[in-house]
């Protein structure tokens, strides 16, 4: 209820999430809310940690401070990502959002390392921790704050498809666990003189580190060029195949330049007996309409295929029977017969499972394997094969 009230109050055109200004507004609001809550929790926990002499509470306090700094960086990331394209960055600055998330991740890791050191010192040189009911209640209140903040960031992160805010949601949920450990250490101080506080501090620090490394992985992948979302891949393929005269698609490549800044290219198979003007009209319309529908920039390459030559159709049919029985081959495309008389080449591309292939054989070994099988069926043909690797599984 509170989340919806904040969104309704501070974000204009809140339903226009495809609009970059609206998306940035969501990111800024989430960042400001994060700063306020984490700054408040830092002040409360630091005061408690100093009063109680608890390293676990103090570690948790500085974790909240790093979260507040993270929110500031998140806001800057959204601001910079919204800068328009220029000559040096023709596809915009959307990856700034990933870079800001990466900085946040390293800050989380730094805090975790620092407090592992402090916690180990507390175990080696223990000091007593005094349980106070007011302090315990305030820790429980901070847990409730973090549960709400996690849901709030998750709600906005899902709504605008923001990796940074989704990561912030997971980070806040991790803080719920760490604060719960702190609460446990306070309760245990009533029943034992063991340095439970130090052990809890180590556990808190390890959880902080785990969260930090997880965030690094999540933000590094899109910067390095991770495999595209399988759902997006299927949406692009099915959308293009819906157009009349497009008989098949392959060689889809997707480049991610930041949230809402995706460029894709795909090859579309079309009948070779149609006029260039007719096919161009279909391809041009598909590019524009699919780009608008899926909110990306799509380029379609035209691949003409023979649909009425009996020799081509019969040979392709028999070749597919051979290839479909091969454990590594997923599909074939761009098939054609080139040459005359006794010198004819079967030219085609095969799509293979990249992980399976690497474990079994090289490209050359695979080509020779296919050629030998084809030669048994078609001794009059030579094969010219291109291997395309499919990284989606």
From TrEMBL:
It is found in: Membrane. The chain crosses the membrane at residues 24-44, 98-116, 128-149. Residues 228-304 form the Cation efflux protein cytoplasmic domain. The keyword Protease does not apply. GO terms for molecular function: monoatomic cation transmembrane transporter activity. Its main location: membrane. Keywords: Membrane, Transmembrane, Transmembrane helix, Transport. InterPro entries: Cation_efflux (IPR002524), Cation_efflux_CTD (IPR027470), Cation_efflux_CTD_sf (IPR036837), Cation_efflux_TM (IPR058533), Cation_efflux_TMD_sf (IPR027469), CDF_Transporter (IPR050291). It is a multi-pass membrane protein. Residues 33-224 form the Cation efflux protein transmembrane domain. GO terms for cellular component: membrane. Belongs to the cation diffusion facilitator (CDF) transporter (TC 2.A.4) family. This is Cation diffusion facilitator family transporter.
């Amino acid at each position: 209820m509170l989340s919806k009230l904040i969104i309704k109050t501070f974000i204009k055109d809140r339903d226009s999430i495809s609009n970059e200004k609206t998306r940035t507004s969501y990111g800024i609001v989430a960042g400001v809310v994060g700063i306020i809550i984490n700054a408040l929790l830092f002040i409360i926990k630091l005061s408690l940690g100093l009063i109680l002499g608890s390293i676990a509470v103090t570690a948790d306090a500085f974790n909240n401070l790093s979260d507040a700094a993270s929110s500031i960086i998140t806001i800057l990331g959204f601001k910079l990502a919204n800068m328009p394209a220029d000559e040096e960055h023709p596809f915009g600055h959307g990856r700034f959002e990933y870079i800001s998330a990466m900085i946040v991740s390293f800050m989380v890791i730094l805090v975790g390392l620092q407090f592992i050191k402090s916690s180990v010192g507390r175990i080696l040189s223990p000091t007593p921790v005094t349980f106070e009911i007011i302090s315990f209640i305030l820790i429980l209140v901070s847990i409730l704050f973090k549960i709400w903040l996690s849901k709030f960031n998750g709600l906005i992160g899902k709504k605008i498809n923001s990796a940074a805010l989704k990561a912030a949601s997971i980070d806040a949920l991790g803080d719920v666990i760490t604060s719960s450990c702190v609460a446990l250490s306070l309760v245990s101080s009533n029943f034992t003189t063991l340095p439970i506080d130090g052990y809890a501090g180590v556990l808190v620090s390890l959880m902080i580190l785990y969260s930090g490394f997880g965030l690094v992985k999540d933000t590094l992948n899109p910067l390095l060029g991770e495999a595209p979302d399988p759902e997006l891949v299927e949406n692009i393929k099915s959308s293009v195949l819906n157009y009349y005269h497009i008989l098949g698609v392959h060689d889809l490549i997707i480049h991610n330049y930041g949230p809402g800044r995706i460029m894709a290219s795909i090859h579309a198979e079309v009948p070779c007996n149609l006029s260039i003007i007719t096919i161009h009209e279909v391809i041009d319309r598909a590019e524009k309409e699919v780009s608008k529908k899926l909110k990306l920039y799509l380029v379609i390459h035209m691949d003409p295929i023979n649909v009425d030559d009996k020799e081509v159709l019969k040979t392709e049919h028999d070749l597919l029977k051979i290839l479909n029985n091969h454990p590594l081959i997923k599909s074939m495309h761009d098939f054609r017969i080139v040459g005359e008389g006794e010198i004819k080449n079967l030219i085609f591309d095969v799509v293979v499972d990249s992980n399976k292939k690497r474990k079994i054989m090289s490209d050359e070994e695979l080509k020779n394997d296919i050629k030998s099988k084809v030669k048994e069926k078609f001794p009059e043909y030579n094969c010219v094969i291109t291997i395309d690797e499919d990284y989606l599984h």
